[in-house]
Write a structure and sequence with these properties.
Spore Coat Polysaccharide Biosynthesis Protein SpsA, Chain A; two-stranded antiparallel ribbon; single chain; alpha/beta; about 20% strand
Amino acid sequence: MLPACKLMDAIVGAGGVVRADDALQSVAPVGTPKALLPLLGRPMVQYVLDAISKVARIQNVIVIGLDAQHGLACPGKQLVYLPSAGSLFDNARQGCRAILERNPASRLAVWFSADVPLITPAMVDWFLDRTLESDRDLFYQLIRREVMLKRFPESRRTYTHLQDRVVCAGDVAAITPVVGAGAHPLWEQITGARKNPLRQAQIVGVQLLWLLLTRQLSVPRAEQLVGQRLGLSGVLLDCPFAEMGMDVDKPLQYALAERELRAART
């Protein structure tokens, strides 16, 4: 049995739906929860839950935006459903509060997007190992462009130019539940602009925006500026797994995920 100091809880964000202006309406009708997009006969989010179910350090799993009638499973874990609170920020905050109600001693709340069906238990364990290396409040992943393109050359991700690398964001993060439950108001603006790195930098501050625009922003400087603005300590991890940032936003990415999952079955 793992010591309590190493146990964590998960939040799976599954509140998004296919909108009328969404490219994924070619895959599923408008109004369909994106987490339930069918991949080889199974809901997309079930692949995420499969990975989580095999990670020993995770106890409770809070699924936000779905309910028990969808027939999901996460063997060996306590599965809890909550309705969507609206924004990603509000969902993360209510997930952290739910974790604290069930497990006040929880070390970290690990956030998973429901649309990363290619992650594996080993990748999640790698990430959790990194969170044990420091006592920061927030852990966020960056994936280098060359890592993504080597694994998925046709992936069409959104990239950000830093001082010494070009990166895209990962879709698995972690925060201490106490910090997440009472998150800084700016988090709502930052998470709302998660597809627009320049807008995020502008929200954090002019200095960060300038450094980003001039490609002078280093990872340590980004950690420092974001931490000062939000009043927390964070770390940006160099993730070696493209799958951790391979979310399904477009039909091309849906087809890619389907192809990869089919190949894994053979």
